[in-house]
Structure formats: C-alpha cells, structure tokens
Design a protein that fits this description.
This protein has helices at residues 3-19, 29-36, 63-69, 74-79, 149-152, 437-442; strands spanning 57-62, 84-90, 93-98, 109-113, 116-117, 138-145, 159-165, 175-180, 186-196, 200-210, 230-243, 246-262, 268-286, 289-304, 307-324, 328-342, 344-345, 349-364, 370-387, 403-417, 422-433, 443-444, 466-477. It is mostly beta strands and 480 residues long.
Length: 480
C-alpha cells in the first residue's frame, strides 16, 4: 500500500463515517469490505474502521476465514487466534478465555450475537454449544482482547466476542450443508434468505449436530455424568424498511441441547440447556443523529441435576451517535437490565437485580494519522430477593439482599498510523465484572449434617464486582 492509497483510505473512512448510521446491524458490511479490501468493524466507535484503526485490540475473523479453517464450531475457530486460551473438557463443550485465567465456566468474557448478549448470567459463562447461529450465516467474528465494558457493555472484562451475522437486507446467504466424521459426528444446516416485496427481507436458519462422547477411562467419573452431545437450533432474522432512513430489525432464536458439562468445581454432570430469545431494533438516521432503540428478552432453562435454573433477562437500550463535522463522533447511551433466576436445588426463592447504565463515548480524528477515543459507563445495580428460605439457614430475611452497587468503567485509546503499514496503539481500560446470580444467592446448598453443626449456604449478597485494569502498548506491521 502506498502513502497516497493510505491517505485516500483515511479520507474514505471519514466520508463514510459522516454518512453512515450508528447501528452495526444497519451497516452494509459487504460494501464496506469491498471498499477497504478487508473486513470492517463499526462496533467500537459506531463509525466504520479497519481493525487496526479501532481503539481496542481487535481481530476480525471473516466468513472466508471461517470457511478455510475447516472448523465445525466457534470455539475451534477462536482457538486459532492469538491471545485466546481454550479448555476443552468434553466432546461438545469447551471454555474460552482471553489472555489466560481460563477455567470451567469462566465468567470474564462477554459474547454477543448482533449486539444481543448470549453470555449466561446465572452461572456467569457462555455455553457455546447452545448458540443459535449456524456457521454459514456468520459474516464475521470480532475478537476484542482486554477489558472493554465502557465500549461494549456489561461484564466485558477479559474480552469480547462479537458475532455478526449476514444482514438479510443486504446479503443473500443461502446454503445447505451436511457433514459427517469420526466419533459419531454428524451435522446439518439450512440457511435461506428471502424477500417479501421490496422493503422486507428475512433469513431463516435451522441446524442440528451430534457427536459421541469421549471414551471414559476414569473410574471416578460415572456413566450417568456423561452424555453424548447433541443440539438443535433455529433462528429468524427479518429487516423491514419503515421509512427511507428508518429500519426495523426483528430477530428470534431457539436452541435445545444436551451435553457433558464441567461445573466450576471441576466435576462432570449431564447437562440439558434450552434457550429462547426475541429482539427488536429500530435504527433511524435523523437530524439529531443516528438513533438506535433496542429491546430483547433471553430465557434460559438449564438442568444439571439436581440444579435446575430458569433465568430471564430483559434488556432495553437506546443510543444516539452524533457526528460533529468529520473529526468528532459522540455516542450517548442508556441501558436498562432486569435479570432474575430461581433458587435451586431448594426452590421457593428468586434472586435478581436491575441495572441502569448511562454511557458516553467521544472519538476525535485529530489528524489524518492520529485518532483518540474516550468512553465511560456507570453501572448502577440494585440487588433483591423474594420468596421463602430453606430450613437450617442463618439468614431468613429477604431484606439482606437489598443492596446497591455503583461502579464506573472506562476506556481510553490512541491510534497512530506511523506509516502506511505500521500502526501504534496505546490503550488504558478499567472493566467491571459483576458477581453472578449463583454467587449472589440463587444456588441454595443444604447442610450435610443437622444444625447447629451444619447450615445451608445461600450465596453472598455482599459480594462486590471485580475491577480489571489494563494498560497496553501495541505495534502492528502489515506484511505484504
């Protein structure tokens, strides 16, 4: 790439940034990829950027990369990227972490599908086998390393995996795939894009897979703890043009899976998981900026006997992306979350919290080669508990859970294009990791001996969030 081409590319970026809406779901990624001759992100700042221009440590895995990898699942795809640790512990199950600290049910990574959280709040982890997305409908996977709560949202402390599917308004993704392999592996998927008139477009995907569990040579692991992994999934994605500059996108998904799971105590258990979600997003390009309003609900039914969790999360958020000339971008946002789960294995109670989270971001293209970004977010959490208590507990009042937590996360980034092939990135970040609902009291463990020697445990409502701080200097050189 010559210096002239670099400056032309920067100019194109600034022009597009002034013209395009904020919401990543409304962007025509295909046209941007053709223009830049590489995958482009809008997730960090709302403006189209190469991964090297983003104020975060990001790697974009394109659809072509996924196809060339030969992988059949997302954990395998991510395991081939730098800075990612994978912990496979069963035939259909694995845990992923960024920059170490990998463990069973790792709570540190935020995973999104088109901006919707698929991270499971009850135990604080991502069940990759349940994600209701077929590989053939993924346009790109954005892997972000390090704490980025202020830019990407709740609990993004170790990193972010942002899965972006094809937008049916711009992309006709059609495929039918059947695969078979050793160890009893078999899978099938169908992805179909359709148009209803000139203003409504949709995509339907259905997939299923199965596999034999690894042979068990450990007598300490009982056959009842192991389960051959299987899963069925379905998703629907519909985009309608309400007005020339206003789109409505409706997404719905469902998954049902069974597998061997490793608990945080590193014990194996047969695990059945069902998920369902519905999301609606309105993107409008107005005289007051590019406004996005979004609401979604996630439902989880997780059974790992004797534990049976039923978790419901409601999320509503609105943001406005304002362009001030060609050099400044400001994003203002407000998010509301309502998160509840039942107590188990002793039922009768419910633990949950509500979160209000205002946020702001400012991106300044200081020159043709220097860009600065600052973002801040306040998570104001209100914990609560309702219902009854099991016998033998020391705490018998729901008022013990009337707690409030207020924490601030922040991201600062400077990106310097030193030459046409060399980029320097300086970042500082503070991320907030909230306690999981299991830690806060949804798992009620009965005593093994009668009181007063034995007492039940109800979690700890006094737990505080973990704060993760990171400082980073990165240099990137593009090879021919």
């Amino acid at each position: 790439m010559t210096k002239t081409h670099l400056l032309a590319g920067v100019a194109a970026s600034l022009t597009l940034a002034a013209a395009l809406p904020a919401a990543a779901q409304s962007v025509d990624y295909g046209s941007l990829q053709e223009l830049f001759n590489e995958p482009v992100t809008t997730s960090a700042t709302g403006s189209p950027q190469r991964s090297t221009e983003a104020p975060v440590d990001m790697q974009i895995i394109s659809a072509a990369d996924i196809k060339r990898s030969g992988a059949t699942d997302i954990p395998t795809i991510l395991s081939r990227t730098a800075g990612v640790d994978i912990l496979p512990f069963a035939a259909g199950a694995a845990e992923i972490s960024v920059r170490g600290y990998d463990q069973a049910r790792s709570p540190r990574m935020l995973v999104l599908v088109n901006g919707r959280q698929v991270y499971l709040d009850h135990f604080g982890y991502t069940d990759w086998h349940t994600l209701p997305v077929a590989l053939d409908e993924i346009r790109q996977i954005e892997l972000v390393r390090g704490p980025n709560s202020a830019l990407f949202g709740f609990n993004a402390v170790s990193g972010v995996v942002n899965i972006i599917t094809y937008n049916p308004k711009f992309d006709a993704a059609n495929s039918a795939t059947v695969q078979a392999g050793g160890l009893g592996y078999a899978s099938a998927s169908l992805v179909q894009t359709y148009a209803l008139g000139g203003s409504v477009h949709g995509r339907l995907s259905i997939s299923a897979d199965k596999q034999d569990e690894w042979s068990n040579s450990n007598p300490a692991i009982l056959p009842t703890q192991l389960s051959n992994p299987w899963a069925t999934r379905a998703s629907l994605d519909v985009v309608g043009e309400l007005a020339p500059k206003t789109d409505l996108r409706v997404e719905a998904s469902w998954s049902n899976s069974g597998q061997t799971e490793m608990l945080s105590s590193y014990s194996y258990v047969a695990h059945r998981v069902q998920t369902g979600s519905a999301k609606a997003t309105i993107d409008a390009d107005t005289a007051y900026g590019s406004i996005q309003a979004q609401a979604y609900v996630n439902k989880l039914d997780s059974l790992a006997a004797p534990l049976h969790y039923k978790n419901t999360i409601w999320v509503a958020k609105v943001q406005d992306l304002l362009k001030i000339g060609t050099a400044h971008t400001v994003r203002l946002g407000l998010e509301y979350r309502d998160n509840k789960v039942n107590t188990t294995p002793v039922t009768g109670g419910e633990v949950g919290y509500r979160v209000w989270a205002p946020s702001a971001m400012w991106n300044w293209q200081a020159s043709k080669t220097v860009a600065l970004t600052a973002a801040v977010r306040l998570d104001s959490l209100k914990l609560s508990r309702t219902g009854t208590f099991p016998a033998g507990v020391l705490v018998t009042k729901n008022s013990a859970w009337d707690k409030s937590i207020d924490k601030v996360s922040a991201n600062l980034g400077a990106v310097v294009a030193m030459t046409d092939v060399d980029t320097l990135r300086l970042t500082a970040a503070r991320g907030v990791q909230a306690p999981t609902l299991v830690e806060l009291g949804s798992r009620q463990v009965l005593p093994t001996t009668a009181p007063p020697k034995g007492t039940a445990t109800l979690g700890n409502p006094n737990l505080q969030p973990a704060l993760v701080t990171s400082y980073e200097v990165a240099f990137e050189h593009a090879l021919p």
